[in-house]
Automatic annotation (TrEMBL):
GO terms for molecular function: siderophore uptake transmembrane transporter activity. Gene3D superfamilies: TonB-dependent receptor, beta-barrel domain, TonB-dependent receptor, plug domain. Residues 229-662 form the TonB-dependent receptor-like beta-barrel domain. It comes from Plebeiibacterium sediminum. It is a multi-pass membrane protein. Keywords: Cell outer membrane, Membrane, Receptor, Signal, TonB box, Transmembrane, Transmembrane beta strand, Transport. The lineage of its organism: Bacteria, Pseudomonadati, Bacteroidota, Bacteroidia, Marinilabiliales. Transmembrane segments: none annotated. Pfam families: Plug, TonB_dep_Rec_b-barrel. GO terms for biological process: siderophore transmembrane transport. The keyword Membrane applies. This is TonB-dependent receptor. GO terms for cellular component: cell outer membrane. It is found in: Cell outer membrane. Residues 84-187 form the TonB-dependent receptor plug domain.
Length: 691
């Protein structure tokens, strides 16, 4: 199998700081930061491997009937059945069955994932895991860290259309010793290009509100070389005023295999423009935003007995935010649009050594994060023109460098498995002092179908540039913020039998320290700014249940009922903060989340998928009446939404129709950004394979 995941960590030991002259990656190396040169040299040469997709079943009980795939829950190769953590894997088959057309819609069905959509169909969504904030989740594309350092609002701006995603892996809980810094409450890895057969896939979809999506991807595979190419265009007139959007993606993934060695190249670009009705403040419903993301990575890996992999990557994100979309009619005090450009450059490496006492992984990662802006950062001596914008200039900049070193050892004996490791982390903003974040996972098969597991892991998150520097008429950043830290305990039981019954029951507690939030006193005047601060300690408790029934196996002799899935999660938070504090993000969490999906055949090749979601959110928001200027406090109300998808499937094509929010429920994920009502979509997919 091929390598599906690479995990970021930070090893910068001798590297020159970015200065911003023309914001090119290699033009900005002007000032040396020296620390631990021997370490980076060592780890670069030995290479990097985190989730080599090699089949290693020596430590798996052969009687356990599981579809074993390798997942990114450790730095050493690990099969799904071996992990002592909660990892949710969503396959292509599950993706195609659900009534969804975007990544954020799909993640709604994962129990402990909270999706707060600002705009529909992937325009912009805030993703959090286990009651954390949207800045505490690491996003990876084929294992490369593409998380945005400016703000978590932009982390899902990945240059791949929804139809090209083959699998999603979601690690719930802290992932510092596996993925690196900022995988505070979880990590989500999007995987593409898994097919080894030459073919072409195309998708044509249209729907209400002028919606259309045109996309295609192709795989060209030979014995040694494989290319995956994808492109799509998505647009809509909007479901209410100023919610129109247009987006397109281009993506290439190439793999060259020679003997036991592989070189992989990824290149992608995405461009999105969208009306942002009340996105960040209901006082200004005519907001607009355009984002552009360019991404590239190059990896070398060896599939030898002791595998390794080294990767280098670059991500550029450019954002223009308009508080007034119609600049001519903007308020007299409006000074102009916000412009931001971030450049992230990283390299990582990992070596896995297999010996009689298990597998040991040694690795490191370096990541440099730079920003140019007219809002975020520190003042520059000379302004710089914003690429592609007329009469717009960057006046501020900032850079920080992150370095991590990793050590992990995994061992299995009969029915018992253990994995323990640590991340040693250093950051230029923290005075280049090392801090260590350890963790351990344990698992034991009680019998052929029951497994118990437990883990203890420490994690951390650096503030985003928005946390540190953003200053407007309504919010104010804090450059003196400390990093967030947490210690998480979790345990659970997994069940899987040959009759098609599979479930996971888990519980966790997370002790958070120096948690970052935007807040202000509850009795503050309406016009007082929301300010970032370390609001001290938050303890989060959670329970999660995931159940899957293969109804064809369970009820032999019938093929009408195909599958049933049910997920439920419960959360509670205890806070140690000043009395009367009003949070903007941290304390608006899902207390209860329930989802159920039933797949069944109607007749012949026609099938249906019904989904029900229920959410009950803690917290409230201020609703602003733009006609009267009156602002009132409201509590989030529980809601339930039903979606339906009907599919006619043939080997070469699929025809589908879906209805989201079937009963036209009025609800909001965040503030008064009310989500679309009933929305009908129809489409067709073609799958042409070639020998």
């Amino acid at each position: 199998m091929r390598l599906n995941s690479i995990f970021g960590c930070d090893v910068a030991i001798m590297f020159k700081k970015w200065q911003g002259s023309r914001y090119a990656v290699f033009n900005s190396l002007n000032r040396c930061i020296k620390i631990g040169m021997l370490s980076i040299m060592y780890f670069t040469f030995i290479g990097y491997t985190q989730t080599f997709a090699q089949t290693d079943t020596s430590s798996v009980n052969k009687k356990v009937s599981l579809q074993e795939i390798e997942v990114s829950a450790r730095r050493t190769p690990v099969l799904y059945s071996e992990i002592g953590r909660v990892v949710t894997v969503i396959s292509k088959k599950e993706i195609e069955a659900l009534p969804v057309q975007s990544v954020d819609q799909l993640l709604e069905y994962v129990a402990q994932v909270d999706v707060r959509q600002r705009g529909p169909l992937g325009v912009q969504s805030d993703i959090s895991v286990r009651g954390g904030s949207f800045d505490q989740v690491m996003i990876l594309l084929n294992g490369i860290n593409v998380t945005d350092p400016q703000t978590g609002h932009h982390s899902l701006n990945i240059p791949v259309d929804f139809q090209s995603i083959e699998r999603i892996e979601i690690l719930e809980g802290p992932g510092a010793r596996v993925h690196g810094a900022n995988a505070f409450s979880g990590a989500i890895n999007f995987i593409t290009g898994t097919s080894n057969k030459t073919g072409v896939k195309a998708n044509l979809m249209g729907g209400d509100h002028g919606l259309y999506n045109l996309g295609a991807n192709t795989t060209i595979a030979t014995k040694q070389f494989k290319s995956f190419i994808a492109a799509n265009k998505l647009a809509s007139n909007g479901y209410i005023d100023n919610t129109d959007f247009s987006a397109y993606n281009l993506f290439y993934q190439g793999q060259l295999n020679i003997d036991n060695e592989q070189v992989e190249l990824q290149v992608g670009y995405t461009d999105k423009g969208f009306g942002s009705n009340s996105f960040y403040s209901a006082r200004y419903p005519n907001q607009y935003e355009q984002t552009k993301t360019t991404f590239a990575s190059l990896s070398f890996s060896s599939k030898s007995k002791n595998p390794f992999k080294s990767s280098i990557y670059w991500r550029r994100h450019q954002d223009r935010f308009e508080l007034f979309r119609d600049f001519v009619n903007a308020a007299s005090w409006y000074g102009g649009h916000n412009y931001h450009l971030t450049d992230v450059f990283g390299l990582n490496t990992n070596k896995v050594i297999k010996w009689k006492y298990g597998k040991t992984a040694l690795g490191g990662d370096f990541r440099s994060e730079s920003i140019w802006s007219n809002v975020l950062g520190k003042d520059m001596d000379d302004k710089i023109s914003v690429p592609g914008e007329k009469d717009a200039f960057f006046t501020k900049k900032y850079n920080r460098s992150n370095t991590s070193l990793f050590l992990e050892h995994s061992y299995s004996y009969n029915k018992f498995s253990i994995s323990a490791g640590l991340m040693a982390y250093v950051n230029s903003d923290l005075g280049w002092e090392f801090d260590v974040f350890p963790g351990i996972d344990l698992g034991y098969w009680i019998n052929d179908v029951f497994k118990i597991y437990g883990s203890v892991n420490k994690s951390m998150r650096m503030p985003t540039y928005t946390d540190l520097f953003y200053n407007s008429s309504t919010i104010q950043g804090n450059p003196d913020l400390k990093p967030e830290e947490s210690l998480t305990y979790e345990g659970g039981v997994k069940f899987n039998n040959a009759n098609g019954v599979r479930f996971n029951l888990s519980a966790f507690t997370r002790n958070g320290k120096n948690m970052i939030d935007w807040g202000k006193p509850a009795n503050a005047p309406v016009d007082e700014k929301w300010k970032t601060s370390n609001i001290n300690d938050i303890q989060t408790y959670g329970i999660e249940f995931n159940g899957n029934l293969n109804l064809v196996k369970l009820f032999e002799g019938q093929d009408v009922l195909k599958s049933f899935q049910m997920n439920y999660s419960w959360l509670n938070q205890d806070k140690s903060i000043p009395e009367g504090y009003n949070s903007r993000y941290v304390f608006d969490y899902l207390k209860h989340k329930f989802s159920a999906t039933l797949n069944h055949k109607i007749f012949s090749e026609l099938s249906a998928s019904w989904t029900l979601q229920y959410q009950d959110r803690v917290g409230g928001y201020s609703e602003y009446d733009i006609t009267t200027g009156v602002e009132t406090s409201k509590e989030y109300e529980p809601f339930e939404v039903v979606d339906l998808k009907i599919v006619w499937s043939q080997p070469a094509y699929r025809l589908y129709a879906e209805v989201t929010n079937l009963f036209d429920k009025k609800y909001t994920d965040i503030g008064q950004l009310y989500q679309p009502g009933k929305w009908v979509k129809v489409g067709m997919q073609f799958n042409l394979g070639f020998k």
